[in-house]
Amino acid sequence: MKRITNKTTVLTSLAALLLPLGARADELNAGDTAWMLTATALVLFMTIPGLSLFYAGMVRSKNVLSVLMQCFAITSMMTVLWVLYGYSIAFGGEGAYWGGLDKVFLAGVTVDSMSGTIPESVFMTFQMTFAIITPALIVGAFAERMKFSAVLWFMAIWLTVVYAPVCHWVWGDGGWLGNKGILDFAGGTVVHINAGMAGLVCALVLGKRRGYPTTPMMPHNLTYTLIGASMLWVGWFGFNAGSHLAADGGAGMAMAVTQIATASAALGWMICEWVNHGKPSVLGIASGAVGGLVAITPACGFVGPMGAIAIGFASGVGCFLAAVKLKRMLGYDDSLDVFGVHAIGGIIGALLTGVFCAETLGGAGFGVESGGIAAQVGVQFTGVIATVIYTGIASFIILKVVDSVIGLRVTSDEEQEGLDIVLHDERGYII
């Protein structure tokens, strides 16, 4: 997802691959544009209805509409904020830490303005869909207990001071992590580690759901969850292959390794669950697939098929251990395993990108020609640690500010009754 104007050596090399043979950086390519229009729709499809159904199926029936409402409202609000100033902070200039305000209100984004071989309006909207799904992912960590008003305030501030700046660090012109040579093709750091860490902080600050972990909290409808996971799997091809910003062989390989890693991760989680609990579950294999999608996201433009199998299987096992074993051991209530799947999957993918991008292991060789695998893994580690620390601290501060102003959590009685009727005066099921 890197803009082809980035100044670093790694991204300059990548930029050459983004341009179809004979095309100029400022010349419209109809094929690239058509593909990016499709990819943008696919990524939006990941949030509504994909992620919405994935989450809604896992909560209790009295909270299903609240999760759907949160995802839908976030989609609407992030769209407007991205247009007003989010795009500018992420992609408006060449600062090390933020893009400035040159493109507020989409100044300069016209019918004729270009981003590589596609209209800038398409690039802006494609990036918008990432700014939509990233905060929506956090919803799963605090599901069933956060005020709707607090959700809106938290997400609006979080986009402004966390997502947009981190996006610029990695993908924006002059971003400090991009200049270091970090490899994050489609958002392992920007999207998944970012959202996963914020989710963990939300779960810790809000505290456990009433009755957790002694009261059974069975999923409302795992059919919804499997359908949502399937939509995420399909939509993720836009997420990953679309991040090549061109309709060519690079996008094709990104699509291939995405499919391979996802399947490998689903099997990895299923096997772990089968060995540990005696039976494989639908929720487990769906969660494993999402973990694989997360892990291959930073790597999909840099690794080959065998690397994808390794990354996928490692993430399936790693996410299982984090979501099932680690959460139980530490006792935090991450309702839908946002940290266990997205943060852990993103970290595994980010670090292994530095390994399997090596040409000797079937990768494209970006970033490892001069320093070797160890040096590239070091750069990846720097990006992981910087994101974890910044997102963790900033998310904590935002939550405390919102809590002091309007409060974060519904009352115990409201939580018992369910957020659908308490916050929205509706029910998602027949009594």
Largest sheet: 2 strands, antiparallel
Derived from helix and strand composition plus strand pairing, the structural class reads mainly alpha
Could you state the order of secondary-structure elements as H and E? Answer: HHHEEHHHHHHHHHHHH
* Cα-to-Cα separation, first versus last residue: 47 Å
Strand order of the largest sheet: 1-2
How much of the polypeptide forms β-strand, as a percent range? Answer: under 5%
**Overall strand count:** 2
Radius of gyration: 20 Å
Residues in helix, %: 55-70%
Low-confidence stretches: 2-23
Tertiary shape: globular
Total helical segments: 15
Mean pLDDT: 93
Describe the structure.
By secondary structure, the chain is mainly alpha-helical. Helix content is 68%, strand content 1%. The protein contains 15 helices and two strands. The protein has helices at residues 9-18, 30-56, 64-91, 120-142, 148-171, 176-180, 188-206, 222-241, 249-277, 282-296, 305-330, 338-356, 372-405, 412-417, 419-424; strands spanning 114-115, 118-119. It has a two-stranded antiparallel sheet with strand order 1-2. A hairpin with a 2-residue loop joins strand 1 (114-115) and strand 2 (118-119). The longest helix has 34 residues, at 372-405.
